[in-house]
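<context>
A single protein, sequence plus fold
<entry> Chain with its tokenised backbone below
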Amino acid sequence: MKIFKRILLILFLLIILIYVTNITSMPNNIILFKGEELNLDTVFGIYIKDEGEYYKTIQTSSNIQNTNTVETKKVQLSLFNIVKIKEIEVNTIPTTTVIPLGNSVGLKLYTSGVLVVGMTEIEGKKPYENTGIEEGDMIVEINKKEVTCTAELIDSVNNSNGEDLSIKYIRDGVEYTTNIEPIKTDNNEYKLGLWVRDGAAGIGTISYYEPSTKKFAALGHGIVDIDTEKLINISSGELVTSRISSIIKGKEGVPGEIKGSIINGHTIGTVGINTDFGIYGNITNISELNISNSNEIEVAKRNEIKTGEAKILLNIDNGVRKEYNIKIEKIYKNNNSNNKSMLIKVTDEELLELTGGIVQRNEWSPNNTKQ
């Protein structure tokens, strides 16, 4: 009897774990095209409440016409139509047309404030100790004066003459304030014992250009700080031309790498936001992209994507954009939490010969300053 009870308890806990895992894995926000179906991968008993009724799937609005319109609604998930368990915001956007690219471009990113990426002793002391400041925090003010770059931070600290500084910093969207007393060095400079950064630069691939809005998307993933491993919160940025200098072929378990330079690059556009799904901004100099409106196509809905043979666009020979063969092996239609929407395999012999398969762009170059 005791064994039977234990088995029942284990089964009960296992069922609870399955439900909790399923619920927590669902995103808080979802973006769909008009007319696209919201189909969450839910376990038995979890339903979507829409306009008073409960469904496993719901159809989004098909009435959006304006290209700048976003229809937002909130749907509730319930357990057996009784217990409310989660609310999801669904944003429906109009269908649009884009021009697929694949061009190699350079990106210069500037942070919203000064990012703390490390800590070090100054003359055997730790001025940052017991202040609350940690790696990954963004310093935005010193003595109520805005800090936008490392140069401003250095000037403010040096002008302190060793007196306490009131520092405002941001962590996970929450503002905090603390005080730090700078330490004087042998060089008659004042330091906080912090390694800081105000920007990063590198090369990547621009995914598409949207003619109706003049916006672009690049990379397909966010830029993460190499030290803090967090998404860089940027205030602005530039999209510039780049030049590929070399290609390192990939090997089993190690992706290939494309290296390049953005020195003397011409401005293509401005960067507005860095997200988990990529870099977004506006094109201001379209002539640098060498594109034609004849290549404009409508963006497909998720249910229109099929497994099988496909093509990708890529520029790995300076100025030359070519199509290469791939195979879509699997589609993750219900994934709304990151950019992993499909599994592809490179099948093009020329691309395999050049790169060995999947390649990544060169490592992002941070500008670290000891302060």
Q: What stands out?
A: The chain has three domains: 14-93, 97-103+212-366, 109-198. The first strand starts at residue 29 and ends at 33. The chain has a mean pLDDT of 80. Residues 109-198 form a domain with the Pdz3 Domain fold (CATH 2.30.42.10).
